[in-house]
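Let us work through a complete example step by step.
Step 1: write down the sequence.
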Amino acid sequence: MLDLIGLALVVIMSLGFVGLFQPSIEPGLSPLFWGCAGATLMIIIFKKMKKKQEDNSE
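Step 2: predict the structure and record it as tokens.
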């Protein structure tokens, strides 16, 4: 489930960067881009911590 959410965030981030949402959001490094990038990074860190906990419990 987190993989699909992360993929959706990357797609939205990419579309926002190239300017698909231009009437309402500025293209480029907008708050939409940074919000999606931050959320994707948090998902990656969360999955890495979860995997590390599972490895330690074995």
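Step 3: interpret the result. The chain is about 75% helix and 0% strand.
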